[in-house]
Design goal:
Elements (H helix, E strand, L loop, with lengths): L1 H68 L4 E7 L2 H4 L2 H8 L6 E7 L3 H8 L5 E5 H10 L4 E9 L2 E6 L14 E5 L4 H12 L9 E5 L2 H10 L4 E5 L2 H8 L3 E6 H9 L4 E8 H6 L1 H20 L1 H10 L5 H7 L5 E4 L1 H18 L19
Parallel strand pairs: 1-2, 1-3, 6-7, 6-8
Antiparallel strand pairs: 3-10, 4-10, 4-11, 5-8, 5-9
Helix pairs in contact: 6-9, 7-8, 8-13, 11-12, 12-13
Length: about 375
Amino acid sequence: MKIKRISAVILALMMALSMLTACGNEAAPDVTEPEDNAAVTEEAQPEDDAEPESESEPESEPESEPEAAAEADTIKIASLKGPTTMGMVKLMSDSEAGSTEIKYEVEMFGTADEIVGKLVNGEIDAANVPCNLASVLYNKTEGGISAVGINTLGVLYVLAAGEGEYSEIADLKGKTVYSTGKGTTPEYVLNYILKSNEIDPESDVTVEYLSEATEVAAKMSESTDAIAVLPQPYVTVAMSQNENLRIVFDLTEEWNKIDGTQLVTGVTVVRKEFLEANPNTVSKFMEDYAASVEYVNTDNDGAAALVGGYDIVAEGVAKKALTYCNIVFQTGDQLKTNASAYLNVLFESDPTSVGGSLPGDDFYYNAG
């Protein structure tokens, strides 16, 4: 009996162990399978995440392409018929021949007023205008234009007919002087020089302003004792029509004698919106303009032929006038130094002549 009980106990124990072993074998997959699945999921996840990254790379390339393609290959320029356009004749000729990287569409006007509306409305991209008008436009457009270069220094001269002696500005006292440009550069320059030489423009001298330089030149061609302020090339035109005329004062020299500042006539301006969108195009324009000025100042015959060809003035007149037109292309710090000093003189004389306030530093492109 005891043996049977022991056997029964052993058999029961063996059955219990067998059941525990079976339970242990069933539990193992329940633990390990989720771990395996988790491992697969975790390893697969970076691959899923990597796909969007690889897709985003090609998307960044198209973004830079339109930016490079946005640069304009044409610049529309308005310019006054005179020395400012004379400096661009080689640029104009080369563009028409297709030998410039940028195409230049230049339109000439008789007065600055014709240019203002086109510049403000965005019909043109750049313009050659009187320096003080550039400041007025800067204020009117709330900083919407920038000056990229001075294109013409002083071009004003005092002519006299007859044998009167004029050795200093004071000799103009009590005289009648014909001029053009009331409310513009000629008036501001003449008044500044007269006042600096202790002559009151209102009481010590009589200045008669005519509407066009051609009118002044015509009056001087018939006179035997008149005095006039004229810009080039009209000085040369008048002198060719009346052999009794002579230059008695170079107002650029007289201006420089006063305080060492530089007399500035014309500047080249660009709409800031166009400039910011096309910096490389504008940079190339400035290079081509400087090269054109160099040509005009070194090849008188070739430049005169181009000036005559564009009907700015007759070729013969241009040959004599070009050396007196002070055509330049001053940029950067030189632009800022000379133009700001000139505008400051005008501002102190009459704030409205520069638009009520002096332009900010952002007016002067590429200046320190």
